[in-house]
Description:
The model has no long low-confidence stretch (mean pLDDT about 95). The chain is about 25% helix and about 25% strand. It has ten helices and 15 strands. It comes from Candidatus Nomurabacteria bacterium RIFCSPLOWO2_02_FULL_40_67.
Amino acid sequence: MIRKNKKIKVGILGATGMVGQRLIALLKNHPWFEVVAVAASRKSKGKKLGSLTVYSVEDDIEIIAQKCTLVFSAIEAPKDFIQKIEEAYAKKGLPVVSSNSAHRWTPDVPMIMPEINPEHLDIIPVQQKNRGWTGFIVTKPNCSIQSYVPLIHAWKKFNPKKVIVSTYQAISGAGKTFETWPEMVDNVIPFISGEEEKSEKEPSKIFGDIRNGRFVLKNTPQISANCIRVPVSDGHLATINIQFRKKVSKEKLIKSLKNFKNPLDVLDLPSAPKPFLTYFEEPDRPQTKLDRDLHAGMGISVGRIREDSVLGWKCVALSHNTIRGAAGGSILNAELLVKKGYIKK
Length: 345
């Protein structure tokens, strides 16, 4: 796919933030992509990130567009500003692969979890026609849903009806460390602004269909979410209670995870974990510290599948929020776009 020594030149918007820094680290030795431009706010313009000088995301669009074939957006700013900036780069003919929420509900922008809905990339030509641009915007879903949406998808043949999920989310999801957020040491905060709404609603777009150039949402299963901030550096743990319309056994649930047919397996994408889903038989796994880096932080780990007296079944799942849920997930989206021909080398 990519000739040796000829890599796709990429830029990172929001390069000084936590997700931007993750992108830089993950792309350092990437076989397909080479970072040639980094950009941030005006106050960071002119500073150095490694060997690269920081551009302004809003003032240096023309320069970045000339240097790059695509840009990753990890901007930390108000929603309307992010929308404006991402659209400006798409107007310049660049693919914009975003980890932000700004365009997740834009009607012609796909929200991609590659193992689940890669066919949603089919709306890109519609987006380009609607907007009259040759670039495009693709985004990824919220970090909070990375662990349990794949399970719902893997178990779709059992007709999931209702899901109650509680997520125990790391402080890096707020762009913080223990040094910058000492209030989180020995503390739990039972509220993350906007997180529960995203967790409940975004799956409806991921599980939906494209009909006549528009997304048709799928509002089953019903999802009720509790999102809690816990004193952990990285990794979002989730407890999931789920009701199925069809009768199912523990053995069948585990088998469905282990035999999950991953559409990426035939594409040979550098960041795609193999396997995507890992089930732990041990009663005390997955654990955040032990398992968040599974398959370079891109794997989803599951454990403790057992019967539940209220909804029928329950389990625990884990994902790495700044890798799988942010930077790594965006890189995987970009790899998929290359393989599908939407990004040219």
